Structure formats: structure tokens, C-alpha cells
Automatic annotation (TrEMBL):
<feature type="domain" description="3-hydroxyacyl-CoA dehydrogenase C-terminal">
    <location>
        <begin position="480"/>
        <end position="562"/>
    </location>
</feature>
<dbReference type="GO" id="GO:0006635">
    <property type="term" value="P:fatty acid beta-oxidation"/>
</dbReference>
<dbReference type="Pfam" id="PF00725">
    <property type="entry name" value="3HCDH"/>
</dbReference>
<keyword id="KW-0276">Fatty acid metabolism</keyword>
<dbReference type="GO" id="GO:0070403">
    <property type="term" value="F:NAD+ binding"/>
</dbReference>
<dbReference type="InterPro" id="IPR036291">
    <property type="entry name" value="NAD(P)-bd_dom_sf"/>
</dbReference>
<dbReference type="InterPro" id="IPR001753">
    <property type="entry name" value="Enoyl-CoA_hydra/iso"/>
</dbReference>
<feature type="domain" description="3-hydroxyacyl-CoA dehydrogenase C-terminal">
    <location>
        <begin position="600"/>
        <end position="682"/>
    </location>
</feature>
<keyword id="KW-0442">Lipid degradation</keyword>
<dbReference type="GO" id="GO:0016853">
    <property type="term" value="F:isomerase activity"/>
</dbReference>
<dbReference type="GO" id="GO:0004300">
    <property type="term" value="F:enoyl-CoA hydratase activity"/>
</dbReference>
<keyword id="KW-0560">Oxidoreductase</keyword>
<dbReference type="InterPro" id="IPR029045">
    <property type="entry name" value="ClpP/crotonase-like_dom_sf"/>
</dbReference>
<protein>
    <submittedName>
        <fullName>3-hydroxyacyl-CoA dehydrogenase</fullName>
    </submittedName>
</protein>
<keyword id="KW-0456">Lyase</keyword>
<keyword id="KW-0576">Peroxisome</keyword>
<dbReference type="Pfam" id="PF00378">
    <property type="entry name" value="ECH_1"/>
</dbReference>
């Protein structure tokens, strides 16, 4: 018994309650408390059944993620579970909230599981680069069969109590709010009926139900190769389930352990565990009082019903917050609202929402052609095109109509927020809310804190981000803020190396091989060169391509040639254009760079820019930069983002390479002082 575990008896039922906020993770105190309490009831002959229940918001939410990487301490989860399996009397898990990871595995070890209807169960370890390493890979297939077990463990998805009941993961649902009573009643019935105490480990019925299991594993591998290219955990999960099917339970457990340890000790899993906490850090701003009074956001205004404005609007509608959507012309307004409806209807077709929900969301829009209609909203988000004069004009007019206390936000992706705020008489109420396209899908919200932005405006925006399902990252004001600024060097270097003699397809291959979804040139072709072109004071390949009518996939040609199936092939014409531009600009030619050299050349400058962003105080912490890159630019999560990746590569190595590049290509590669300082002192960005 210890501070987190309490025991009591109700008749013949022993009840163990674990209370370890915030989420009853299986840290050492919980393991010790639970193990001790189980052993005590095991030795108590008056106890005929044991109920394990958790206090607070949830049943065990899994292993304590912060303990991975530290020396393991007994009792290990496996020891606690063995104690339960060998208790010699029925153990019943009483589940509410989310039984995740080790929490779900705990439930699988118990002889019976009861839950309230709102509970959810899941094995999300794959998201942390792990597999369920406390018997989950061996027990789940014995309960739900290998195919479904693979689906659950490879997706990490949560299963609602009703589905869990159908799957046999839960034995009985008890009324909401009456979990303990329900679980004790269930335990008394088990005692009275003398129900056999079967151990999941001894079951084989579900394993033997399908004779030929090879297609199940082949399908799982094919799906994982597509959905999680580059990730190690899915393959190990598949191997562990193969072991469950082919080996006796104890040997399967040994195999699971080997596969688990391999993942636990990998850089990938360290990166993914780091990222779990990184996402949760973004909303924390040092110096912001925890008890600050927030502004009430009951109604929102959005200016601009284009792609961005429409996507932004949907976030609020989906969260049940009414939006006044303003445009310049009826036609633009109708078009914007039509797109929002189509998006919702597509979601309904895919079964993600009901048609009633579509109508409920659409009914929350108030269309408007008049800025005066924004006089009653609590927050206005401007989402018009990126021109300072236009934004300033809007903000000064907005200032005249918005009610006192309203937050005035700009969705600008690079303009000076302080200058925009200066167009109003209330710069303290002005903030940047930079959504990423498509704004209704992308989870990142860059919150740009201006020089004069008030603390309560920032705190309200952070809270609002959570409400609309976004992950916030706070940025100071600079050109491009965190995400767009840090990724600019990658674009510049990719464009530079093709002029030095490395063909675009090799650059794309290297970036794709690193783990990005697409290479930069393939991406530009997809987006459209006309959309992203900017005029430069010198001849560029992109401009030449545009002049040749090569606008990207939509015109059948861009950096690549495309066939009718949009399959890309390298183009000799593009190679000629590149050679011409390079010759005209006098750029020396070198042999194509290797994959490693390409990664260093294009991504070390990103790390360097990250160091500058940190030393200028634009980002609060390195992990915010990682979150911005992963969520905003699809930087491969399993590397942890550029700053975590830099730490794992080794900062001295990066500094040395940047210096070498500076000696060849110029001072833009000079390592930032912070990077040099950390490299020389043995420090790290994220450690
Ligand atoms: N280990 C350690 N800390 C954990 C944790 C875990 N398994 N799960 C959650 N926490 C911490 C979070 O870091 C957060 O800490 P903070 O308040 O200091 O930022 C706090 O618990 C609350 O978590 P949060 O995610 O903000 O709350 P939520 O209500 O939105 O979600 C969960 C709760 C349990 C659904 C969610 O935290 C979760 O998915 N946890 C991970 C579960 C998991 O992967 N388990 C398997 C581990 S191998």
C-alpha cells in the first residue's frame, strides 16, 4: 500500500483504487501500490474477487512515458501483471476514461472487464514508436483474433465501450457514474455463479479460427508500407503478432520483449516520445499567469471566404461556434459558402459526420458583405491576400466597428504583425493566428505574439486553439514566423543544388528518402509553379519553366513531364533550361551530390535557421520549432523534427559541415552562435 493505492473490502470483494493524477500512468509508485495491494488481497482468504478501479479522469493511460530511457525499476509492469494472472481469484478491471497502452494491457490480463459506456480502450504504442510490450501483442489476438488485433495495434485507434463489448474486449457495460457499484455487483455475480477464472493466455480459439493467416500478415505489411513508410514499429508489431499465432504463449512473450526492446532503444522511438511531450509543451508560455482571466469567445468573424478563410471558418463551425463570414462580393461569398458545404458533405459521405451535423454547422454561418456586421463578434480573423496595404486598411476599418475587447487576428503567414497592429488604436488586442492550408485539416496553429499583444489575448488564443482541435505554437514577429522561416533555407538550397549539377529527381529522391512525403520539386509541380513563383532580380529555372508553359501537373509538365496518369519522368528540356540558367549566372558545375551530401546541404541550414530563431527569442523552445515543422511541413515525425534530429546527428558534425559549406558557398552557411556554443559545450537543443 502506498499513497496512490487504497484498498477496502465490500463483503467478499476487495477493491483497489489507484489515484495518481493526471492520468494514472503506470509510474513506479502506481506499480508498487498496485502490486502490494494485489498481493495483500491474494493472501486474504475472505476476499473472493478483486476489483481494480482508478480515481480521477481516467483508468490507467499506459506506461509513464517519461520513464522510458531511464533504468527500469522493479516491480516492472510484467511482474505486476504476473501477480494478477496468478492471483488465484477473479480480478475485474473497472474502466472509465481511456484505458490506453499498458492500461489496456492491464485490462487484458484481468479475468473480466466492465466499463461505463463512455470509456475507450486502445493500444496507441505505435504512435510512440513502440509496441504493447506487456503482453498486449500476445493477449489481444487471443481475444479479438489476429486481423483485428493488427488493425488496432497498427492504427493505435481507440475503441469505444460499445464496440469493445461486441469485440469481447469488455464483458459488461455498467451505467455512467455507477462504475464502482456496477463492478462490485458484477464481482458478486462472478463469485455467486462460481464462474471459471480463465486466463487469456490459455485461450487459442480466436487464433485457430482462421486456418490460413498468411494473407492477413501480407495485407498488414502492405498497408503499413504505405501508411507508415520509414517507421520501424509497425513491422515489429506484425512480427509480434506472428509470434502470438505460431508460438506457445511464454515463447511469444519472449519474442515480444525482444521486439519491444529493439524499439524502445531506437532513436525513432526516442523521437516519437519526445514529440508526445513537445506537442503538449507548445501551449505553455513562461510568464503567462495560470489564473489569467480569459476573454469570452462566443462568436467569431472571418474576413475572406477564399480557401484559407473558408477552412478557418470550418474549424469554428465544427466546434459549435457561430461565424460571421465576410466577403467583398456576393459571388465570392456564395462560392466560399458553397465550398464549405461541399467539404462537409464530403465528410458526411465518408461517414465522418452525419447529415444533421452538416446542417448544424452550416446554420452557424452568418454571411455578410458589410464590415459593420462584425460589430458583435468576440474575435475577428482576417484571411485576405498577403499585402500590407490591404491588411492595414482592413485593420483600421475593423478597429472602427469591432466591439471593445474583441480580439483582432490576422492569418498572415509572413507580414509584420506589429505594423498591422499599428493600424489600430488597440494593438494590445491584435494577434496573429496563422493557420496552415487546408486550414480545416492541418493541426498546427502558429500564434504570433506582437510586441504589444496583451497576455490575456495570447492566453485566450491558446485556449481557443485547444477548443478547435489545433496544436498551438507561439512565435515572435519575424519574416515567415517559425515554420515558413525555418523551411526557407531548404527551398533555397534545393533550388541552388540543381543549378550546380544535381538533377531535380535526385534532390527529390533524397528528401523523400529522408521521410518527407514528397520531394520539393514534385511538390512544386503539384501545387503549381504559377502559384508559388516569386519574381527575382535574376533569371530563375522556375520562371523559365513558366515561360515555357510548364506550370506543373495541371499543365502536364513542370520540373517533370507527366503522362495521362500523372506519372512523373525527368525531362531533358528541363535539364537544358537548368544548364542554360546556370551558364548565364556563371554557376560552377559539380558532379551530382550523394544522398548524404544532399541531406546535409539542404537540411543542416534548416537546423542553423532554427538556432537563429531560438537565439532571437522568436521561438520559446526548440521543441516548438519541431512541432511547427512536423505539423506544418510534414517533417518526418520519427526524426523528432529538425532540432531533435540535429541533436541525434551530433551538433559538432553539423557545425563542421556548415563551416565547410560556408568556405565553398559563402557566409549564409556560417553556423549560428547558439549552434556553435552548444556544439562546443557538449550541449543540445532538446536534451
Ligand atoms: N505518461 C506520462 N505522462 C502522461 C501520459 C503517460 N502515459 N499520458 C498523459 N500524460 C501527461 C501529459 O503529458 C499531460 O501532462 P501536462 O499536463 O504536464 O502537459 C497530462 O498527462 C495530461 O495529458 P493530456 O494529453 O494533455 O490530456 P488529455 O485529457 O487530452 O488526454 C490521454 C489524456 C490519456 C488520452 C492522453 O494524454 C494520451 O493519449 N496519453 C498517452 C497514452 C499512451 O500513449 N499510452 C501508452 C504509453 S506506452
Amino acid at each position: 500500500m502506498n499513497a496512490v493505492a487504497t484498498s477496502e473490502k465490500q463483503g467478499e470483494v476487495g477493491i483497489i483504487t489507484i489515484d495518481s493524477p493526471p492520468v494514472n500512468a503506470f509510474g513506479i509508485a502506481v506499480r508498487e501500490g498496485l502490486h502490494g495491494a494485489i498481493n495483500a488481497f491474494k493472501a486474504d482468504d475472505t476476499v473472493k474477487a478483486i476489483v481494480v478501479i482508478c480515481a480521477g479522469r481516467t483508468f490507467f493511460a499506459g506506461a509513464d512515458i517519461s520513464e522510458f530511457g531511464k533504468p527500469p525499476q522493479e516491480p516492472l509492469l510484467g511482474t505486476v501483471f504476473a501477480g494478477i494472472e496468478d492471483a488465484g481469484k477473479p480480478v475485474i478491471a473497472a474502466i472509465h476514461g481511456t484505458a490506453l497502452g499498458g492500461g489496456c494491457e492491464f485490462a487484458l490480463v484481468c479475468n473480466f472487464r466492465v466499463s461505463v459506456p463512455s470509456a475507450k480502450l486502445g493500444l496507441p504504442e505505435v504512435k510512440l514508436g513502440l509496441l504493447p510490450g506487456a503482453g498486449g501483442t500476445q493477449r489481444l489476438p487471443r481475444i479479438v483474433g489476429p486481423e483485428l488485433a493488427l488493425d488496432l495495434m497498427l492504427s493505435g485507434r481507440q475503441v469505444g465501450a460499445n464496440e469493445a463489448l461486441k469485440l469481447g474486449l469488455v464483458d459488461e457495460l455498467v451505467p455512467e457514474g455507477a462504475l464502482l457499484e456496477g463492478a462490485v455487483a458484477f464481482a458478486n455475480r462472478v463469485i455467486a455463479e462460481g464462474r471459471p477464472v480463465t486466463k487469456v493466455r490459455d485461450r487459442r480459439d480466436q487464433l485457430d479460427a482462421v486456418a490460413d493467416k498468411a494473407p492477413i500478415f501480407a495485407a498488414a505489411r502492405a498497408k503499413a508500407a504505405k501508411a507508415s513508410r520509414g517507421y520501424m514499429a509497425p513491422e515489429n508489431i506484425i512480427k509480434a503478432v506472428e509470434a502470438a499465432v505460431t508460438l506457445p504463449f511464454d515463447e511469444g512473450m519472449v519474442r515480444e520483449r525482444e521486439l519491444f526492446v529493439e524499439l524502445r532503444d531506437s532513436t525513432q522511438s526516442a523521437a516519437q516520445r519526445y514529440y508526445f511531450f513537445a506537442e503538449r509543451q507548445g501551449g505553455k508560455v513562461p510568464g503567462l499567469p495560470a489564473d489569467i482571466a480569459l476573454r469570452n469567445i462566443a462568436k467569431v468573424g472571418v474576413i475572406g471566404a477564399g480557401t484559407m478563410g473558408g477552412g478557418i471558418t470550418m474549424n469554428f463551425l465544427s466546434a459549435g461556434i457561430p461565424v460571421t463570414l465576410m466577403e467583398m462580393t456576393q459571388e465570392a461569398l456564395d462560392r466560399g459558402i458553397g465550398t464549405i458545404r461541399r467539404n462537409y458533405e464530403n465528410s458526411a459521405k465518408r461517414g465522418r459526420i452525419t447529415t444533421d451535423e452538416v446542417e448544424r454547422c452550416m446554420a452557424l454561418i452568418t454571411p455578410s458583405l458589410d464590415m459593420a456586421d462584425l460589430s458583435d463578434v468576440d474575435l475577428v480573423i482576417e484571411a485576405v491576400f498577403e499585402r500590407m496595404d490591404v491588411k492595414k486598411d482592413i485593420f483600421s476599418r475593423l478597429d472602427a466597428v469591432a466591439k471593445p475587447g474583441a480580439i483582432l487576428a490576422s492569418n498572415t503567414s509572413f507580414l509584420d504583425l506589429n505594423e498591422i497592429a499599428g493600424a489600430t488604436a488597440r494593438p494590445e488586442s491584435v494577434i496573429g493566428l496563422h493557420f496552415f492550408s487546408p486550414a480545416n485539416v492541418m493541426r498546427l496553429l502558429e500564434i504570433v505574439r506582437g510586441e504589444k499583444t496583451a497576455d490575456d489575448v495570447l492566453a485566450t488564443s491558446l485556449k481557443l486553439a485547444g477548443k478547435i482541435g489545433k496544436v498551438p505554437v507561439v512565435s515572435g514577429v519575424c519574416d515567415g514566423f517559425i515554420a515558413n522561416r525555418i523551411m526557407t533555407p531548404r527551398r533555397e538550397q534545393c533550388e541552388a543544388v540543381i543549378l550546380e549539377g544535381t538533377p531535380p529527381e535526385l534532390v527529390d529522391k533524397a528528401i523523400y528518402g529522408f521521410g518527407f512525403g514528397m520531394g520539393p520539386f514534385a511538390t512544386m509541380d503539384l501545387v503549381g509553379l504559377d502559384v508559388i513563383n516569386r519574381s527575382e532580380p535574376y533569371r530563375t529555372v522556375k520562371q523559365d519553366l513558366l515561360d515555357a508553359g510548364r506550370r506543373g501537373q495541371k499543365s502536364g509538365a513542370g520540373y517533370y513531364d507527366y503522362d495521362e496518369n500523372r506519372k512523373a519522368t525527368p525531362s531533358p528540356l528541363v535539364a537544358n533550361i537548368i544548364a542554360d540558367v546556370a551558364a548565364e549566372r556563371g554557376i560552377p558545375q559539380s558532379p551530382p551530390l550523394s544522398q548524404d551530401d544532399l541531406i546535409a546541404r539542404t537540411l543542416y541550414p534548416v537546423v542553423n535557421e532554427g538556432a537563429r530563431i531560438l537565439e532571437e527569442g522568436i521561438a520559446i523552445r526548440a521543441s516548438d520549432i519541431d512541432v511547427a515543422c512536423i505539423l506544418g511541413y510534414n517533417w518526418p515525425l520519427y526524426t523528432g523534427g529538425p532540432m531533435f534530429w540535429a541533436d541525434s546527428v551530433g551538433l559538432p558534425k553539423i557545425v563542421a559541415e556548415l563551416r565547410r559549406l560556408a568556405s565553398i558557398h559563402g557566409p549564409q552557411f556560417e553556423p549560428a552562435p547558439l549552434l556553435v556554443k552548444l556544439a562546443e559545450s557538449g550541449g543540445s537543443f532538446t536534451g
